Structure formats: C-alpha cells, structure tokens
Amino acid sequence: MLRTYRAIGLMSGTSMDGIDVAAIETDGETVSRFGPSALHPYAENEVALLRAAVDAAVGLTDRKQRPGVIGQAERMVTALHAGAVRGFLDAHGIDPASIDVIGFHGQTILHRPEARLTAQIGDGQALADETGIPVVYDLRAEDVAVGGQGAPLVPVYHRALVNMLDRPRPVAVLNIGGVANVTFIDGAGDPWACDTGPGNALIDDFMRARAGASRDENGGAGARGKVDDGAVARVLAHPFFALKPPKSLDRNAFREWVAEQAAVSEMKVEDGAATLTAITAATIAAVVPQLPKAPRTWIVCGGGASNPTLMRMLRERLSPASVEAADAVGWSADAIEAQAFAYLAVRSMRGLPITFPTTTGVAAPMTGGVLVEPRGRKVKKSF
Ligand SMILES: Nc1ncnc2c1ncn2[C@@H]1O[C@H](COP(=O)(O)OP(=O)(O)OP(=O)(O)O)[C@@H](O)[C@H]1O
Ligand SMILES: CC(=O)N[C@H]1[C@@H]2OC[C@@H](O2)[C@@H](O)[C@@H]1O[C@H](C)C(=O)O
To answer: Are residue 42 and residue 143 in the same domain, yes or no?
Structure first.
C-alpha cells in the first residue's frame, strides 16, 4: 500500500478574495482524510497591489521577470502565504513537523499559453524556509513549456472526489471562480476539462465599478434585475465558446468583449448584474455540446456556488441534468481548490501525472511542479 502524506494546499485565485488553505491526507490517488480549511482574506490595499501586478504583467515576455510592482507583489504574496500557514497551523493545533508538504499555487499574474507564458508569483523557496515545510510550487510551468494550456489543474482532484461519490454519470464538476472551469468524468479514463468562460469576474468587476461592492452578495442585485437576452446572445457569438476543449482563459479575456456586446454600463445596477449572471450561466451551458456526452449530474464548487441567482440560472439552462452545490454532496465548495493543490503536490512528489491530453492538451500525461526543501536545498523527487 502507498504511503499517506499530510499535505496543505494554498490557492490564491483569480478573484483575489484571499488565500484558501486546506489540509488533506492522501497517497496521491485517493483521499483518506479531509482536514480543516480556511480563507485568509486579502485587505483592500493588498488586492490593489495584486491588481497593479496583473496590470503590469501584460507586457512581460519572460515569466521569471519581476520588475517594479511585480517584485513588490511577489514579496507580499510570499509573506502573506507564510502568515496564512502559520495562522492555520496555530488555529488547529497542528504541529508543522507533521506536515509532509505544502502545495503552493501562488497568484497568477499572466496566463498566455499560446505564447508559452504563464506566471504565478510567490517564492516557493522562501515559503519553505519561512514555514520549515517542503513546498511544491510552479505547477503550471512544465505543461505550458511543452505547449499545454497549463490550466485547469484541478480535474485530476475532481476525479478523485467523484470516484468517492455515488451519482449518475457522466458527472461534471463545475468550478466557478473568477473564471469558470469544468471537469467531465464518465468511466475510469482520464478526466476531460476546460475553462468555460467567465466565472464571477464579470459580476465582481461590475459591482465594484457600479455599486462599490466586491461582489453581488447572495445574488441579490441579479435576482431583482431583468436579463437582456439579446446581450447574452451577442456575447455567446464569441468564437471561444465554439472551440473544442482543451481551452483556457485569462481572467480578463472577456472584459472588453462583454463591455462591447452587452453594454451593461448603460444598464441599471440590478439589470446589469442580472444580465452578467445570465451571461455567466449561458457561457457555462454552452460547453455541453463540446463535451463527449451531456452530463447527468453537475456539481458546482467555487465561490459561484454561493450565488443563488447564478445557481437558479444554471439549473434552468442545464435541465434535465441535476445541479447540486458541492456542499450538498458533502464536499467543501470553498476548500476544493486548496485541497486540490495539496493533492497535486503529493502527486508531483510521487511523479504521478497532473495534466493530461484531455485537460490541457499536452501530448501525453505529465507531472509538474518544483519541490524545494527548507534551507534552500533542492531535492530529488524520490518519494
Ligand atoms: N455569498 C456570495 N454571494 C455572491 N457571490 C459570492 C458569494 N461568495 C462568493 N462569491 C463569489 O465567489 C468569488 C470567489 O470565488 P472563488 O474563491 O472560488 O474564486 P477564486 O478561487 O479566487 O478564483 P479562480 O477559481 O478563478 O482562481 C467572489 O469573488 C464572489 O464573486
Ligand atoms: C492560469 C490560472 O491561474 N488559471 C486558473 C483560473 O481560475 C479558474 C480557471 O482559471 C482555472 O483554469 C485556473 O485555476 C484552477 C484552480 C485550475 O487550474 O484548475
């Protein structure tokens, strides 16, 4: 039997709401125990620095460059992650020596796989030194370097979760973060996956600009507004939605297209929120014809599962399939991505594949990630 590892995963997603932290026990195949999880929220000034780094990264041609504000943001990201780990261990009375590895995603500041460029800021070595725990980081780089999409990475973890669940297949696991992505699981083969389009990013940006709020709390504004169906149809005409998987997106990929096609800035706040929520639901539903079969079960995770207006619109568009929030099937919607990076770190240590031809478009299943030990010593992957 394979050894079980205690791993912590850290994810700072595209919506920049904070650092998700979660602990699991796994051998890299099955999950034997789900530990605690937490969100370490970013303060407004921290979000501002992250946004500045994303803006500054537009012109980067080398993923290792850290000019100006990007370097500043990276130091902050590393320090905040180290603080988040310490706080998490303290809060749950976990001895750092009992943790085998940390899976560290970092913050994506640039993702242009077509140019073989993806950049996640966060210094894995410094995090290992700060916490005294081995760290696996830079999990997207190898995939992108050989021509893969570098995202999504979570599907192999979704497969592990679905294998523990009794639901009619095919099952689609939908993650609605800043961007939305789906994993399709039918038989025992490799998972299928792709990004579907915008997640919460359009709604969040609109609420920030128009209502001074970071999101449409519980879908309240969207529930009161009227959907502009013409705007939804115009947005769906973008060629991305007709592309076959694998395909992945930058968080801001649709910002201008939606602004032009949907003209939400001219709408009342409620109507704009309703229309953007409908656009998000419609672009997710548009992936169904691109999948090998229509899923019978959808399980929704990520922050979007907490928006009841979005969930209602998804149910309408995905019917007759069942649409359940991840929490309703016993998973922790908010913790799945962080758990996934814990799982991916263990797979990386064991040299198991983390991406597949059907998830990122690589030629053959491949592993990824860089393992570093505390005190600056790079170690061989010999687990
Ligand atoms: N109660 C709520 N009401 C409305 N929206 C919510 C609620 N809770 C979370 N969200 C949405 O979920 C978002 C956060 O989602 P999540 O943490 O899954 O994103 P992420 O992990 O940062 O992104 P990604 O998966 O793209 O990297 C928030 O920005 C918000 O839009
Ligand atoms: C490049 C990057 O950071 N992509 C994120 C983003 O946020 C959601 C979607 O776009 C997904 O492709 C990915 O994250 C998840 C965790 C993944 O790789 O599975």
So the answer is: yes
**Total domain count, the chain:** 2
Atom of ligand 2 nearest to the CA of 120: 3
CA 156, distance to chain mean position in Å, is: 13
Say if residue 273's pLDDT is above 80: yes
Percent of the chain with pLDDT over 70: 98
**Nearest ligand to residue 109 Cα:** 2
Residue 383 pLDDT level (bands cut at 50, 70, 90) = very low
- The one-letter code for the residue type at 100 is D
Where in the sequence is the domain holding 65, given as residue range(s)?
A: 5-153+335-376
Residue 253 per-residue DSSP state: T
* 28-50 residue pLDDT tens: 999 999 999 999 999 999 999 99
CA of 375 to the centre of ligand 2 (A): 30
Report CA(151)–ligand 2 centroid distance (Å).
6
Q: Which two tokens stand for residue 175?
A: 């993650």
Task: For residue 166, give the CATH number of its domain.
Answer: 3.30.420.40
Q: Please compute the mean of the pLDDT values over residues 175-179 and round it to a whole number.
A: 90
- Output the average pLDDT for the chain: 94
Minimal-distance CA residue to ligand 1 atom 28: 303
Residue 383: inside a domain = no
> From the CA of 33, how far away is ligand 1's center (Å)?
25
Asked if 295 contacts 170 with a C-beta cutoff of 8 angstroms, the reply is yes
**Which atom of ligand 1 lies nearest, measured to the CA of 179?**
26
Query: pLDDT (tens digit, 9 = 90+) per residue, 287-334?
Result: 999 999 999 999 999 899 999 999 999 999 999 999 999 999 999 988
Residues 13, 15, 18, 19, Cα dihedral to 10°: -10
Are both 29 and 87 inside the same structural domain? yes
Residue with CA at minimum distance from ligand 2 atom 14: 152
Instruction: Give the DSSP H or E segment for 80.
Output: helix 69-91
Which helix (H) or strand (E) is 74 found in, with range?
helix 69-91
Quick one: 141 and 261 in the same domain? no
